[in-house]
Design goal:
20 helices; 496 residues; 2 domains; globular; single chain; three-stranded mixed beta sheet; mainly alpha; Neurolysin, domain 3
């Protein structure tokens, strides 16, 4: 290996390590950090973010990137490493160091304000911090947007190459097909879900979630699961992946499906090829691709009849006496019940993307300063009534339910819908090679994970996001695979 490549690689490795430290600090802040330590944690995060920014914008790093990129006979992966390093550096050089520190500190402060306001159920306790954060996000977008829109600049952080002019028509076409179908399902007789809300002890649910997590293939030698307010996947590297879940004692699916969802994310992180570790392509090429894995496991696998044919006897062992009077078909109808729920993460497959549409529209209006932070609760509730047919009873049930905006993750929400679209296309492609239902029914999850490891996980971000999907499924981004999956499944469940 040449000295030129080694010089570039050393800097790339160092940035990966700093990112791992940031990941560990973020995980700790939401799981183990005592309340009194939050202020110090904000300073820790800001300092590491500043150091990482200094390393990225260092002219010597720019020279190392260009020198490495000019080397002959680079592998495909090495070309991609240079591409991603150049892309991230180009963005970083547009952001002043003082701004990077201010953003890191404000994100931590806003997240703390969100946690406090959730306890009081008062948006007024959250609004001042969110206003400060929004001013910084507008400033960030203006630094980065170039010839595009502010929203394009923020969306590119999560779905590289995606632009508002393409995303909006896609979501509108999905909405036009989804809204009438959702209405048909909502108007149909609904299944009995009382079996899911009998009261289940926290320790029983958590133990069951660990069993499922292990069965699906999550590697506990290189990862762990803990509890947090909002489930997430974090950690430091593929060898140290941190999942969190949450438990609602009056609703069995909350813990189980949070765990299965994050398991999809976590196994993606654990599946990157070792030769990509500590490089700029050790990760998903887009958040939509990452979300495709969590939605695949949560919905395609976890909310299927074969899943409950296998796991209902197991669940009875963990929650004795609670599920004796229900069979697998009744269980899958219950966990797939469609309703007008205010909570996105607990919503069903049919209405879920309407929740995303609501958030997408509001954050576009926020970043373009067409709606004020102070007006968010009213705007949120109006769209909830319009899209879901439900008005939240308070701000906790409404505008404050998600952690994303408090962490500055504007442009993130559309990736959830893109993940749904990608997951359905992946399902179609996998079904050409495997009998998915037979494997799930038998509790044989290794062939499913192996297929995903080979075709999706191991390649990291070497290909761009949509190119990876074309390689895997033979199709570009589209809505038909998802809507065909949804209509087939729920027409059967609801006898439509």
């Amino acid at each position: 290996m040449s000295d030129t490549w080694s010089a570039f690689e050393a800097r790339m490795n160092e940035l990966s390590d700093l990112g791992g430290v940031m990941g560990l600090l973020g995980w700790d802040e939401q799981t183990m950090c005592p309340p009194g330590g939050r202020g110090a944690r904000a300073h820790h995060g800001a300092t590491i973010a500043t150091i990482a920014h200094q390393r990225v914008v260092d002219p010597a790093y720019g020279e190392a990137i260009e020198a490495a990129g000019s080397l002959p006979d680079l592998t495909v992966a090495q070309h991609a490493m240079v591409r991603e390093a150049r892309r991230s550096r180009d963005k970083a050089t547009k952001l002043p160091e003082s701004f990077v520190r201010a953003m890191a500190e404000q994100r931590s402060a806003t997240n703390q304000a969100w946690e406090h306001a959730r306890a009081t159920k008062s948006f007024a306790d959250y609004e001042p911090a969110l206003k400060k954060l929004m001013r910084l996000k507008v400033e960030e977008a203006d630094h980065l947007k170039g010839d595009g829109t502010r929203y394009d600049a923020l969306l590119d952080d999560f779905e590289p190459g995606m632009r508002l002019e393409r995303l909006q028509p896609l979501l509108e076409s999905l909405r036009d097909r989804l809204v009438p179908f959702a209405q048909r399902v909502l108007d149909a007789p609904q299944p009995d879900t009382s079996v899911l809300s009998q009261g289940f002890a926290t320790e029983d649910q958590y133990a069951f979630s660990l069993r499922v997590l292990s069965d699906l293939g999550f590697d506990f030698e290189h990862g762990r699961q803990d509890l947090s307010t909002h489930p997430f996947t974090g950690g430091t590297a593929p060898s140290d992946v941190r999942l969190t879940t949450r438990v609602w004692e009056d609703w069995l699916p909350a813990c189980l499906y949070a765990t299965v969802h994050e398991c999809g994310h976590g196994m993606y992180e654990q599946g990157h090829a070792p030769e990509l570790w500590r490089t700029s392509v050790c990760g998903a090429p887009s958040l939509g691709l990452h979300e495709s894995q969590s939605r695949f496991y949560e919905n395609v696998i976890g909310r299927s009849l074969p899943f409950w044919e296998h796991y209902l006897p197991v669940a009875r062992e963990f929650v004795p006496g609670k599920l004796d009077g229900v069979d697998a078909e009744a269980m899958v109808r219950a966990v797939c019940a469609v309703g007008r729920t205010p909570i996105r993460v607990e919503s069903d497959e049919v209405t879920y993307n309407l929740h995303i549409l609501l958030r997408f529209e509001l954050e576009v209006e926020l970043i373009e300063e067409r709606v004020a932070v102070a007006d968010l609760p009213e705007a949120w509730n109006a769209r909830m009534e319009q899209y879901i047919g439900y008005t939240p009873k308070d701000d906790l049930e409404g505008v404050m339910q998600d952690v994303h905006w408090s962490e500055g993750l504007f442009g993130y929400f559309p990736t959830y819908t893109l993940g749904n679209l990608y997951s359905a296309a992946i399902r179609e492609a996998m079904a050409r090679d495997l009998s998915i239902d037979d494997h799930v029914r038998a509790g044989e999850f290794a062939p499913i994970l192996g297929w995903l490891r080979d075709k999706v996980h191991a390649v990291g971000a070497v290909p761009l996001g949509e190119q990876l999907m074309i390689d895997v499924t033979g199709k570009p981004l589209q809505i038909d695979s998802f809507m065909n999956y949804l209509e087939t499944k729920y027409n059967a469940l609801y006898n439509l």
